[in-house]
Amino acid sequence: MKEPALLANQLFDTGCVKFGTFTLKSGLTSPIYIDLRLLVSRPSLLRQVGRALAEAAQGLSFDRIAAIPYAGLPIGVAMAMALDCPLIYPRREAKAHGTRQAIEGAFEAGETALLVDDLITRGDSKLEAIAPLEEAGLVVRDVLVLLDREQGGADDLARHGYRLHAVLCLTELLKQLVSSERITTAQYDAVMNYLV
Amino acid sequence: MKEPALLANQLFDTGCVKFGTFTLKSGLTSPIYIDLRLLVSRPSLLRQVGRALAEAAQGLSFDRIAAIPYAGLPIGVAMAMALDCPLIYPRREAKAHGTRQAIEGAFEAGETALLVDDLITRGDSKLEAIAPLEEAGLVVRDVLVLLDREQGGADDLARHGYRLHAVLCLTELLKQLVSSERITTAQYDAVMNYLV
């Protein structure tokens, strides 16, 4: 089985991807719930995720991995250790406090940063994370996520000149879970209809 | 050379510990500046730190590592991967937003969490991190840091019934840097006088 296929099964088996009826903050319901923050509680799976991201980054050119806290940070650390590549991270609350530096870790202006996060839905939170990196003189061309929910994120980024790369996209993940008999085709259809 | 001695040299060589005249936010000056957030930019050193923490935790009994974001999170991930022990982390801004869960990662009430962070000065930020863990039903007995600045943190924790463990304490670190001729005895004295 290929690495992304194996990962899809493990994300299901560890409860990072769940199927059912989930009530969102908006009050609407969703047939799928994804929580990749749970990966920290599965260090061996986290290590595999780090290797899968490293593999997906082959062919990209970058000096630093820039991970988005919180969810992207443990994933970025696992990837940094797999590649032996330096990591930096923009702080979430830098603007609010003002006294903290906006980016932690060592870097120099002119270096290229690969933005890494757990998943992408739309592009806005990635664009928000890119802004302080570019303000600090870093060059950002590529964004790498573990899971692309295929809900417009790639197009949002492309409109701003960034390329999206993903270890898994949601359709692939669902197909793999059907083929390994972890979900039914009815569950697959429910999620596909929900996403449209 | 023993692991902590090696680590002391490497923390100096990578700029995580600096000597000079540093102006603090308060306007006062300090002869030493410690930034262990830089560790993410040295993945191989981060891996060693993870192993050193794992070693320092031998003899302690715990079900989960609870890392304090931000600085403690990459260190906690490295330790979790070294030990293959699940990690959780309290969110910094959980209270402010209200809608987010206070603790990320999987755990059950009644389990024991080992609190992990990069360094300790006084005990207050550790006590703040322990509060949501205990509110969630976790048992906390021990706190493990990479570096103890020896400025009252151990006593603060002891008064609340927690034990502090450290891979390195600042005096040891300074002595090692003198013995490896990275700093002078004058620099050592300046920091020791400053700490008193």
User: Pair with the most extensive interface?
Assistant: A-B, 36 and 36 residues
Give the total of domains of chain A. 1
Oligomer: homodimer
Unreliable runs of chain A: none
Beta-strand residue percentage of chain A: 25-35%
Biggest sheet, spatial arrangement of strands of chain A: 5-4-3-6-7-8
Order of helices and strands of chain A: HEEHEHEHEEHEHEHH
Beginning-to-end CA distance, first to last residue of chain A: 29 Å
Instruction: Tell me roughly what share of residues is in helical segments of chain A.
Output: 40-55%
C-alpha geometry of chain A: globular
Enumerate how many helices of chain A there are, as a single number: 8
Structural class of chain A: alpha/beta
| CATH fold group of chain A | Rossmann fold
CATH architectural grouping of chain A: 3-Layer(aba) Sandwich
Mean pLDDT across every amino acid position of chain A: 93
Q: Radius of gyration of chain A over alpha carbons?
A: 17 Å
Largest sheet of chain A: 6 strands, mixed
- According to CATH, what is the class of chain A? Alpha Beta
Give the beta-strand count of chain A: 8
Offer a concise description of the structure.
Two copies of one chain form a homodimer. In chain A, 41% of the residues lie in helices and 25% in strands. Chain A has a single domain, classed as 3-Layer(aba) Sandwich (Rossmann fold), CATH 3.40.50.2020.
Give an account of the 3D structure.
- By secondary structure, chain A is of the alpha/beta class.
- The first copy, chain A, has a single domain (3-195), classed as Rossmann fold.
- The first copy, chain A, contains eight helices and eight strands, in the order αββαβαβαββαβαβαα.
- The first copy, chain A, has helices at residues 3-13, 43-56, 72-83, 94-97, 124-135, 153-159, 170-179, 185-195, and strands spanning 17-23, 29-34, 64-67, 87-90, 103-104, 112-120, 139-148, 163-169.
- Chain A has a six-stranded mixed beta sheet, sandwiched between helices.
- The longest helix of chain A is centred in the N-terminal third of the chain and has 14 residues, at 43-56.
- Chain A is globular and about 50 Å long.
- In chain A, 43% of the residues are buried.
- At the A-B interface, helix 2, helix 3 and strand 4 of A face helix 2, helix 3 and strand 4 of B.
